[in-house]
Amino acid sequence: MRITLDQDRCCGAGTCVLTAPEVFDQRDDGIAVLLDADPPAELATSVRDAAARCPAAAIRVEAE
User: Fold this and answer.
1) Are strands 32-34 and 24-26 parallel, antiparallel or unpaired?
2) pLDDT tens digits in sequence order for the chain, 64 residues long
3) For 60, what's the count of Cα atoms within 13 Å in the CB-facing half-sphere?
4) Fewest Cβ atoms nearer than 10 Å: which of 10, 21, 39, 48?
5) CA-to-CA distance for 36 and 2, rounded, in angstroms?
6) CA Rg, the chain, in Å?
7) What residues pair up with 25 in beta bridges, in sequence order?
């Protein structure tokens, strides 16, 4: 799986961090930060859930 995060679209809701904290974090201004663009397979469910919950649709998950 490959993840991309469009920080320009991020609205700072933090749902990605709450859903997949191993993969996402937030800067002081609330904008999401991608910690791992190619996380292990066992995190696939939480990463896809984080992308689905993102109100700004700033997270894209691609299967490899």
Assistant:
1) antiparallel
2) 999 999 999 999 999 999 999 999 999 999 999 999 999 999 999 999 999 999 999 999 998 6
3) 7
4) 21
5) 9
6) 10
7) 33
pTM metric for this prediction: 0.93
Please give the Cα distance from 44 to 7 (Å, whole number): 21
DSSP code per residue over 10-42 = -----HHHHH-TTTEEE-TTS-EEES-SS--GG
Tokens of 31: 């904008």
Q: How far apart are CA 44 and CA 40, in angstroms?
A: 7
> Which residue from 9, 20, 8, 4 is spatially nearest to 57, judged by alpha carbons?
9
Tokens (6 digits) for 57: 């649709």
* Number of Cβ within a 10 Å radius of residue 64: 5
